[in-house]
Every structure is written in C-alpha cells, then in structure tokens.
Amino acid sequence: MKRIMFFVIVAVIGLSACKTSKKQPEVKYTPPSAQPKVFTVPETTETAKPATVTDDKSVSLRKESVTFTDAADKSSNEANTYFVILGSFGQLDNAKNFRETLLNEGFAPIILHSETGYYRVCVNSYKGETEARSRVKEIRQAFPKYADLWLLIKQ
After folding, report:
1. Span 59-154: which CATH code?
2. Would strands 61-64 and 150-154 be described as parallel, antiparallel, or unpaired?
C-alpha cells in the first residue's frame, strides 16, 4: 500500500510541475506608420570609379612578429617579409584543417604562429610588397571566396 501511495504522489507532483499557470499576453502586431526618410544615399556619378574587390589598394596590412610552426617552412620562407594570409585561427587544429582544404585547391599553405596567439594560414610569401600585392589581386580574381585575404608584414 505504501508503494502505491508513493507512486501516486510522485505522479501527481510530476504532472503538476509541468504545467504553467501563466498565460501569454495577447499583443497584436501593429505595423509602423510611414515615416519620412532620415537620410538619402548619394547617387554615383559617371566620373567616380567604384571600388572593386580586385582593387589592390584595398588590401589590409598588419605588422606582427611571427614564428613558423614547421622547420621546413622556416628555412624556405624566413628571408621573406610579406605573407599572403587566407585564414586566421585561435586553434592549431582549425588552422591545419584549413591548410588541408587549401592543399586540395592547389595552394601550398604554411602555418605561422603570431605574437597575438593566432595561427595564420599563409599561401605565399615575398620579399617585396609589389609582388605580394599582385599575388593578392590574382587570388581575388581566381578565388572570389577568399576576397578577404590580407598581407602580414613580418617584424
């Protein structure tokens, strides 16, 4: 008998705990009234040249001190100053996974460890800024999904 009473009490508590006694307020949606424009967008003129994704002037630059994660990469790229960066990750495993993706797309990526703690995935490195900027332009034209790539300048 005690067991039956125990199960009944547990069932009553279990079923009553799931119910809510609060009802949601009924609020009807009212669309906003027509308001005047706060600003206007200027029209482009024929003389103004719109900025394009392939414009090499829009390349982001960042100066950082970096170390190489692989000794072979260090020996072949240590003399270079400009690095074309396609990805930046907080975890080394994520950088390695992205590196594998880039290998499948025909790149020869290396991983750099930044002074900020991030792992930078680099696809090319150069001694001069001109060559690096031209490579950025080539990648942006051939791979639009990597349009946000940038240049790292080694300190």
Report:
1. 3.30.70.1070
2. parallel
